[in-house]
């Protein structure tokens, strides 16, 4: 129970103040424990930060896998759009996690940069394997034009990353109505001319 409270408090503080702007003392105070008690659960502030980062990344991968189990029979377009929608909804519904990710990805703590990058690459490889299957299927069904699958995956990530950044600039009200048009333009670029 205390470990989860530490994670929740740390997430809130890291999202608001960043890694450098958050101390273990502040985390302990927010949880209602003494600073030394944190060491019963975590070795360091670094471990707390990395635990939160990894949890957020893998939670998204698991949500995508679970959602796709329900969408197996849907079109490639629908599957890819649903992943995009799930990701966008996550950004909207989990503001602290999104703010944390934003800080960690754009302004990573220098001392953790390599570890964060390694964790990110692992989660991206898992998501890329899912996308590879969907896109390959789409090509085989004639829904996506035949091209290099990795190029389509990279373009898809650029789409998601762009939405992530735009959301931080423009907010939910301006971005939500833009998503269908953004998607339509992306899909137009990858679909076959017959779909």
Could you please describe the fold and organization of this structure?
The chain has 195 residues and is mainly alpha-helical. The model has no long low-confidence stretch (mean pLDDT 94). The termini are far apart. It folds into two domains: 1-42, Arc Repressor Mutant, subunit A (Orthogonal Bundle); 49-190, Tetracycline Repressor, domain 2. The protein has helices spanning 2-17, 24-31, 35-38, 45-70, 76-93, 95-106, 113-140, 149-175, 179-190.
Q: Please identify the structural class as seen in this structure.
A: mainly alpha
Based on CA atoms alone, the radius of gyration comes out at 19 Å
The number of domains: 2
Total count of strands:
0
Overall geometry: elongated
Oligomer: single chain
* Assigned CATH class of the largest domain: Mainly Alpha
- Give the CATH topology of the largest domain: Tetracycline Repressor, domain 2
- Chain-averaged pLDDT: 94
The H-level CATH homologous superfamily of the largest domain, spelled out, is Tetracycline Repressor, domain 2
Our measurement of the CA-to-CA distance between the termini, rounded to an integer number of angstroms, reads: 52 Å
User: What is the level-2 CATH architecture name of the largest domain?
Assistant: Orthogonal Bundle
Number of helical elements: 9
